[in-house]
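Posting for a labmate who doesn't have an account.
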Amino acid sequence: MPVPRKYPQELRERAMRLVQEARKEDPKLSLNAAVVRIGQRTGVNPDTLRGWCKQAAIDAGERPGTSSSDAARIKQLEAENRELKRANEIMLAASSFFARELDPRKASERVGADG
């Protein structure tokens, strides 16, 4: 599998704009045909360009799906949730440790062992 390329934002915007313009000029032109044509001209992989166009349509509310801003928020919330679960595990372990240390039955065992 080839290494994914990071395309400059300027190229992304230009390629997506060209796809939109091509589809406006020829309403019968499918998204697939447009991205293949424009992808060859711009040097952008057609599958990559297709994904960008679909995500742009989702972000614009033209098609159903998870918008980029929603996806970023979900990612942030999942990271926060992981951190909170980790903190909760630490707190449970600490409370268990201190409960054992403060157990009055253990204190009498320690006194008996010392004396």
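Reply:
Got it, the structure tokens are right above this. The chain has five helices and no strands.
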